[in-house]
Structures are given as C-alpha cells and as structure tokens.
Design a protein that fits this description.
By secondary structure, this protein is mainly α. It has one domain (4-65). The protein has four helices and no strands. It has helices at residues 4-19, 21-33, 38-43, 51-65. The model has no long low-confidence stretch (mean pLDDT 85).
Length: 66
C-alpha cells in the first residue's frame, strides 16, 4: 500500500504531465476552494466524455451560476 505522500506525489506528477505546471496548480486550488464532493462528482461523469467537453460544460455551469 502506498503512503499518503506517495499518492500525492504520483497524483501531482500525473496532473502536471496531463495539464502542465500552471494548470495542475490551478486544478488543485479549485478543488480545495470549491465546496463540493469531488469523489461523488467524478463518479457521476460520463466515461465517454472528453476533457474538452467536460471543460466546456464546467465553464457553462460557472457562467450560469455567477
């Protein structure tokens, strides 16, 4: 079993490889700042949805709730 630190390091490595340094940091900040259950949110995402589609929907949601 991995330690908490190992999981955090691996997760950040994955985020950085996928999003780049700045966007990975933004993602972490967003998750920490928002008041939602990330696990529940992630479990309810359609698997066939692309990152671009998810991003577009998130932006639309944010724009409609401000």
């Amino acid at each position: 079993m991995k330690t908490d630190i190992e999981i955090k390091i691996e997760a950040m490595d994955i985020l950085i490889k996928s999003l780049g340094n700045v966007e990975a940091e933004r993602f972490v900040a967003l998750v920490q700042r928002d008041k939602f259950d990330y696990t529940n949110w992630r479990e309810n995402l359609p698997e066939e949805e692309t990152i671009e589609e998810l991003s577009r929907k998130a932006m639309e949601y944010r724009n409609n709730t401000e």
